[in-house]
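Notes taken during the Thursday session

The instructor put the following on the board and asked us to keep it in front of us for the whole hour. The protein is Thioredoxin domain-containing protein. We were told not to look anything up and to reason only from what is written here. First, the residues (81 in total):
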Amino acid sequence: MFWASWNEPCRVMMRPFRAMAVAKRRAAIFCQVDVDKFKDIVERYRVEALPTFLLLKQGVEKGRVVGAKVGDLSIIIMANI
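Then, after some discussion, the predicted structure tokens were revealed:
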């Protein structure tokens, strides 16, 4: 999850993201990347809007959700783990 503390959609998605992270903790690693602190990672993955969720499998992008879309995030997670 690429996020920023000042971004309202990021704050809205924090609880669902954490719930998914707990529920799927044995199948995947969930990370939060503060866009204000890790600008090099933001550029590497071409993050242009917040929140942005990337699903990476063995370093290859398998899915991307941009915006506060809990349903879409759940679908790409379930389809890839």
